[in-house]
Amino acid sequence: MTAAKKIKILIVEDEFIIAIDLKKTLEKLGYEVLAHVSKGDDAIAHAYNDNPDLILMDIMLDGQMSGIQAAEAIKQKYNIPIVYLTALTDEKTLQKAKITEPVGYLLKPFDERGLHSAIEIALYKHEMETQLRIKTKELEAEKIRTDELLHHILPDEIIKELKTNGVVNPRHYKNISILFTDFHGFTDIMNFLPPGNLVEELNSIFSSFDGIIENYELEKLKTLGDTYMIGGGFPKVSDDHAVRVVLAALDMMEFIKNRNIDSSIKWKMRAGINSGQVVAGVVGTNKFTYDVWGDTVNIASRMESNSEPDKINISGSTYERVKNYFDCEYRGKLNVKGKGEVDMYFVTGLKNGYSKLKYSTDN
Asked: Could you tell me the residue range of the domain that residue 287 belongs to?
């Protein structure tokens, strides 16, 4: 069997006879005494050089530094438990000593049994406190990771409500914009591209899209296959949501065109946007999803499916909100079940005199 490791103890005591008596008693009890010193500076040096398991610290020391001051200096740098040796029992001194968070006190004169008990209790208490600190740090790190994950899934306002109330109440928004994008010919690409390469391609594209929508303070709602869905005007209400959503779509389109220059896969993106009212809320218990529902969403999806490669197709509702900022090309009507005919427009670019920098957080 492996012999148990001896506990290393540093004695800091200004009375030589007491220090020698302590050394003999501790060695009799099976502890290893690293040294006995009488000054605070020497105690700090031994704490650094010898890394003791425990320090027995007299409150009154030789020199200008008290035991409390020495303990404070040691505690700032090292996780070493300290037991105070003192004949002083006045409340003022004890209050000063508490600042250094000692693991015990031993009043002079002391006997062998009391010394042994004080040391073992101090070592046990220190071990428990150390383990608690480690667990606390682990929990704090886990909380940070959880918060980061939540911020990737839910909007900040929704996270605050969820943490405060434990639930998120569904909300009705009268004026928002929804964008859908997908890729023309995706099925053909999926059939010839290895699964790993396909996922890598989509991850690269969607990660760049994430940066674009963050730049315009929009909300990512979901991805499904090659479909990418975002919204503007909720949960943080704004008046220029339609303009920012169109700008994001233009940036996405430009990104794809630039990417295609050096890519072997020529992606052909199409986009559709609609504006109107929705109900938004969080669904799920273990896996949260922030989602929206309503005819506005369905029509936005129809705008996308009736768009063309490299084109942004917007509804008449969105057009009325952005016509002063973008050049648009009228392309006719789309019959939507339950809604009748919906006007459609292709966005061809910004009008002269307008800059997207006004709406970007990177300006």
From this structure: 167-359
Query: Three-state SS for 49?
Result: helix
The whole-angstrom separation of Cα 227 and Cα 181 is: 6
Give tens-digit pLDDT for 243-294: 999 999 999 999 999 999 998 899 999 999 999 999 988 877 767 788 899 9
Residue 229: phi and psi, rounded to 5, are -125, 130
HSE toward the beta carbon, residue 38, CA cutoff 13 A: 9
Instruction: For residue 246, give the CATH number of its domain.
Output: 3.30.70.1230
Q: What are the CA-CA distances from residue 347 to residues 261, 328, 344 (Å)?
A: 23, 4, 10
189 and 62, same structural domain? no
Residue 355 CB coordination number (10 Å): 9
Q: Please confirm whether the linkage preceding 109 is cis (ω < 30° from 0).
A: yes
The CATH code of the domain that includes 78 is 3.40.50.2300
Phi first, then psi, for residue 101 (nearest 5°) are 50, 60
Tell me the DSSP string of 277-334. Answer: EEEEEEE-SSS-EEEEESHHHHHHHHHHHT--TTEEEEEHHHHHHHTTTEEEEEEEEE
Number of domains into which the chain is organized: 2
What is the reported pTM? 0.65
Asked, for residue 123, whether it belongs to a domain, the answer is yes
Task: Please write the tens of the pLDDT for every residue from 229-247.
Answer: 999 999 889 999 999 999 9
Alpha-helical runs (H) found in the chain: 16-28, 40-50, 67-77, 91-98, 112-153, 156-165, 186-192, 195-215, 241-262, 295-305, 316-322
Strand partners, 85: 58, 106
Considering the domain architecture, whether residues 243 and 127 belong to the same structural domain is answered as: no
- What's the CA gap between 222 and 178, in Å, rounded? 12
